[in-house]
Design goal:
The structure holds two protein chains of two kinds. By secondary structure, chain A is α+β, with helices and mostly antiparallel strands. Chain A is built from 24 helices and 24 strands. The mean pLDDT of chain A is 83. Chain B is of the alpha/beta class. Chain B contains eight helices and ten strands. In chain B, helix 6 runs parallel beside helix 7. Chains A and B meet through helix 15, helix 21, helix 22 and helix 24 of A and helix 2 and helix 4 of B.
Chain lengths: 836, 226
């Protein structure tokens, strides 16, 4: 076996190019798997740490009655720490005309540590007992207090109750004025021991602005349990511990548990299954490619193996030459692959961190590369596994190589088919060179398919993933203005009577916001035939009944909308029944029911009347302006699937009362603060549009980026594989090339033939890949368009162009790379070799 | 009429430390329609001489004239054209193109020239070679003798000035050897095809009209038999 080892090593040294190509393939394959593992692990660690800072480092919460019960909990070997929390009460501080709300929480030192509150400390320390308190700097500044550490403060602690629904107001909910009442519990005097900044990045702590040590008055406490290990048994552990202390599990920290792979449903199992499937698929793909390069190497050593057979090498020894080759190449490739994967992860994560700073930076925490020994182990195992499976087939072939194989002249690149296609089409365009190129690619179907299927898969996978991310990005941009900004930053639905309160609250917070009030309803109307666009017949029910989205806008913003759209506002000033018709709708309204179209369903002139029906009410609107087709960008802030009728808000006087819900469309750069302000007021239907849109956009942009990186990597791996295969194909045909030269083919003619062959490989794979990618593109469009907001079908031909260019680039580069060796074909030498 | 003239051809190989004189000062001429056999021991330089005559390998010095024109005053592309049109080469191991069938292999030089195939000539050639029924077969579907016939057909298709055969029967059994030699003689007699054949077999050499003997790169004997 030593001889086999030495021989294999020398052969590898001799064929440096082939060896390097194979090693690169292994490095890229192992690197990709390592990068997937390391990147996934780093992302998971980031999410875990982020959740620990934001939501707190605990697994579950139990409601207990005294601090003494904590000792019982700490006796559990799985419990690492217990953070205690109690809402001490609310207080109003300051002059009667300018009271500031205080929400006081009692916490222990474990809570400070496990909820990462130390980072907010500006001065002093956190309280250690119920007589000490720490205040936020904002509270001190808002009240103009000349307070410092060591001073005392007297507070009337009590309970705020929202009288309408008889509910205690918890934390820093905005003052509701007459709708709430205050129930005093106790007068307390505290010593100020510290000052903190606002704890905005802590979900629980941000709801309070004063923190005291725990009192022993026996009222209910929340115990946040931090565990040594988080596993599936956490659910039973939580129940057990709750029973021990006679309490109950009030909450599980679902997000943190999820990031540790623990869910109560089958979600985690499904995710694990998907991740495992992806890793296995990657391994299989890498094994297939490495197997291909080992087969190529084997083919070039057929004579050598035959000679070994002729001097008595056994099948096992011949197979060993393949295994040894895989082992040697693996010894070099796997460590470099692991390092490459690590480096790739670091680079990709850095790019993600910089590109999506707001999402992947959280205070001092940022997305970075986390290394775990398990990643290296898994990466190495997957590399070894791939190599092991890769050398099975070539090893079997090697063991069966006989002496005769080396003596036969037509052995190295047999024509595997009984019939070779004529190549007539290629012959017409490129003459004999085209005919030969066409025939050559069909001579060995396995080899041909290995190349074309690899490229086919890479193209289809890359284009499909790109289609998905592009469609999703398009969805997020649909409600935007042309410059990419949104029409609305915050949306809310509030009772009409609360409008002044909401506006005042936002103003009182010092927030800058442009608040537009709207009320909208879907109303139906019947239209005459001449008013209906027959191309959009699908928009109408029973031929002439249509639904319109009628929206009333406050005077100020109606004026602004008219200005923006070059419409004369004078027609709407004090004219409550005048309306602007946005005559555009997107949906399955055309002649083909399965096709989404954008069009103008109505054919109306100025001064036309629309008789609207809503419940039992009939109202008439006189259309003053009709906005059609491409000018209807303003429609995207309302709805897309219906024509929109914009009227002054006064049109809805017949519908409006104090309890009628109206919509607020708020433009503001301080969208998070405005959202919080409105939510604190008790309004439930508040939505931070800007944040949600930006999050979605970031996610899909990130997805698109990952798709590009993945596609580039796959292309590199497949490109190397194709290079190797084509290089081998040329290498084993050197004798054939010499014959062609000897019968009169010029060197240029030979290169032309080979370049045509390479182009054919690329074209054959694209002929199938492009239509199938388009099919998948359409299927994705159907699913996304039907499941979300409908939009017209489109194709980004640029992506397909790039895919085609990349395929042809890979194949032509492989061919050019190999042509250099063809140039060195010495006719005489090759003919002599063929004569041995 | 003189179809081939070789003047003081030498071929030297430099392999690092050593210099090998494969051919030393070879001179001879061949008339149109002659059937010449070149014999010599293995390593004597006969294949080297054949390759030089066929425009495949350049001599270190000396000249080769085919049909009155110097072969090696041509560029590489011109040499390729020369090989296509004026030379027909037959090898010991056939060297057919595996993806082309019989007909396509035979017409390969014509198609490389971009010319139209003379179908009558092709049909005649196939019939002479006994390959009419196998015209659509690939080389892998033919026996050794049949493959060598295809090689002969390829060499003859363009009616070259000279036909060069390098041990054409070296890989064949006795019966096939006889058949191939019959074909070569027939083409020589019928078409006045000038043939230069290399062999180490004196029996085969004696079937030619003239024998040139090479030893250690030198022409030591030039005998006209008939």
């Amino acid at each position: 076996m030593e001889m086999i080892f030495t021989l294999t090593l020398k052969t590898l040294k001799q064929n440096r190019k082939r060896t390097l190509l194979t090693v690169f393939t292994i490095i890229l394959s192992v690197g990709m798997m390592t990068a997937v593992l390391c990147g996934g692990w780093s992302m998971l660690r980031f999410l875990q740490e982020k959740e620990k800072i934001y939501g707190g480092d605990y697994a579950y919460r139990i409601e207990i009655t005294s601090q003494q019960q904590v000792e019982k909990l700490m006796q559990d070997k799985d419990v690492e720490d217990v953070s205690l929390f109690r809402f001490a009460g609310s207080s109003f501080y300051g002059e009667p005309s300018n009271k500031t709300l205080l929400a006081v929480a009692e916490i222990n030192s474990a809570f400070v540590k496990n909820f990462s509150l130390e980072q907010y400390l500006l001065e002093g320390r956190f309280p250690l007992n119920e007589n000490e308190i720490i205040l936020t700097q904002d509270f001190i500044d808002d009240n103009g207090l000349a307070i410092s550490v060591g001073d005392t403060i007297q507070l009337s602690l009590g309970m705020r109750v929202w009288d309408e629904i008889n509910t205690e107001l918890y934390g820093l909910v905005n003052f509701l004025g007459e709708r709430e009442s205050f129930h005093l519990n106790a007068e307390r005097t505290y010593t100020i021991v510290g000052i903190v900044s606002e704890m905005n990045e802590s979900k629980i702590a941000s709801e309070f602005n004063a923190y005291s040590g725990l009192g022993s008055d026996g009222s209910a406490l929340s115990a946040f349990i931090k565990c040594n290990h988080i596993s599936k048994s956490i659910y039973s552990e939580a129940e057990k511990n709750a029973k021990v202390v006679g309490g109950q599990v009030s909450a599980l920290h679902s997000e943190l548990l999820l990031y540790h792979g623990v869910t109560d449903g089958k979600g985690a199992v499904k995710v694990l299954a998907v991740v495992s499937a992806v890793i296995l698929l990657l391994m299989a793909a890498c094994a297939a490619m490495i197997s291909n390069v080992l087969s190529i190497s084997l083919q070039e050593r057929i004579k050598q193996l035959g000679m070994l057979a002729s001097i008595g090498a056994t099948g096992r020894q011949k197979k060993a030459s393949v295994t040894i080759e895989a082992f040697i190449l693996g010894m070099i490739g796997i460590p470099f692959g692991l390092l490459f994967g690590l480096g790739l992860t670091a680079v990709v994560l850095a790019v993600i961190r910089i590109s999506f700073e707001t999402t992947f930076t959280f205070g001092a925490l940022e997305l970075k590369t986390h290394i775990h020994w398990m990643i290296f182990l898994l990466g190495a195992i997957s590399g070894i596994g791939s190599l092991f499976f890769a050398c099975q087939a070539p090893g079997r072939i090697a063991s069966k190589v006989t002496v005769i194989d080396t003596l036969k002249q037509s052995n190295v690149y047999k024509v595997k088919r009984k019939k070779i296609p004529h190549g007539q089409v290629m012959s017409i365009f490129f003459g004999i060179y085209g005919a030969l190129a066409s025939k050559n690619i069909y001579r060995n179907p396995k080899r041909f398919h290995a190349i074309t299927v690899s490229m086919f898969l890479a193209v289809v996978l890359g284009l499909s993933l790109y289609s998905f991310s592009d469609f999703m990005l398009f969805q997020t941009s649909m409600d935007m203005k042309e410059d990419g900004s949104s029409y609305t930053d915050v949306e809310a639905a509030i009772p009409y009577k609360d409008l002044p309160t909401a506006v005042k609250a936002i103003s009182d917070e010092g927030l800058s916001a442009d608040i537009s009030c709207r009320i909208s309803r879907y109303m139906t109307a019947t239209f005459e035939e001449e008013a209906i666009n027959s191309d959009m017949a699908g928009y109408f029910i029973n031929g002439n009944l249509a639904e319109l989205y009628v929206v009333g806008i406050d005077e100020e913003h109606l004026y602004a909308l008219c200005e923006e759209s070059n419409i004369d506002y004078a027609a709407y000033d004090a004219q409550s029944n005048h309306g602007i018709l946005i005559n555009s709708a997107t949906g399955n309204y055309g002649t083909s029911p399965n096709r989404v179209v954008i069009g103008s369903p109505l054919s109306m002139e100025r001064e036309s009347e629309i008789n609207l029906e809503y419940n039992d009410n009939s109202k008439t609107v006189i259309v003053q302006d009709v906005v059609n087709g491409s000018n209807a960008n303003i429609q995207s802030q309302f709805v897309r699937d219906r024509a929109v009728l914009i009227v002054p808000m006064s049109f809805f006087e017949w519908l409006l009362n104090g309890d009628t819900y109206i919509d607020l469309a708020i433009e503001t750069s301080q969208h998070e603060q405005v959202t919080e302000c409105l939510a604190d007021m008790g309004f439930f239907q508040v939505f931070d549009v800007a944040k949600a849109t930006e999050n979605s956009r970031q996610i899909y942009t990130l997805l698109k980026m990952m798709v590009c990186i993945f596609t580039i990597l796959m292309t590199m791996i497949i490109g190397l594989n194709v290079c190797n295969t084509i290089a081998n194909t040329i290498n084993v045909r050197r004798n054939e090339f010499a014959v062609l030269r000897s019968v009169g083919m010029t060197a240029v003619g030979l290169k032309k033939m080979l370049l045509l062959e390479s182009a054919l490989y690329g074209i054959k794979s694209l002929i199938f890949a492009i239509p199938i990618s388009l099919m998948i593109h359409y299927i994705m469009y159907s699913l996304i368009s039907k499941g979300m907001t409908p939009f017209m079908f489109y194709i980004k031909w640029g992506a397909y162009g790039i895919a085609a260019i990349m395929v042809i680039f890979v194949v032509v580069m492989a061919m050019l790379f190999s042509l250099r060796s063809v140039e060195k074909v010495e006719i005489v030498e090759e003919l002599k070799m063929g004569s041995i | 009429m003189e179809i081939l003239r070789v003047e003081n051809v030498c071929k030297t190989y430099d392999t690092g430390d050593t210099t090998v004189n494969a051919l030393t000062d070879i001179s001879f001429s061949v008339q149109k329609g002659e059937f010449v056999a070149i014999i010599g021991a293995s390593g004597s330089g006969k294949s080297t001489l054949l390759h030089i005559l066929g425009g495949i390998d350049r001599p270190t010095s000396g000249e080769v004239f085919v049909d009155g024109q110097s072969v090696y005053e041509r560029t590489e592309d011109q040499l390729a054209v020369f090989r296509r049109r004026q030379v027909g080469l037959i090898y010991q191991f056939y060297n057919l193109i595996p993806v082309l069938n019989v007909e396509e292999n035979i017409t390969l030089p014509v198609r490389l020239d971009g010319r139209k195939i003379n179908k009558k000539r092709l049909a005649r050639l196939l019939q002479t070679l006994g390959l009419t029924k196998r015209r659509k077969h690939l080389p892998s579907q033919l026996s050794g003798g049949q493959q060598q016939r295809v090689a002969i057909g390829r060499a003859l298709m363009n009616a070259p000035a000279i036909l060069l055969a390098d041990e054409p029967t070296g890989n064949l059994d006795t019966q096939n050897t006889q058949e191939i030699m019959q074909l070569l003689k027939a083409s020589n007699k019928t078409y006045k095809q000038t043939i230069i054949l290399i062999t180490h077999d004196r029996e085969i050499a004696l079937q030619a009209d003239r024998i040139l003997e090479i030893q250690d790169g030198e022409l030591i004997r030039d005998v006209v038999i008939r």
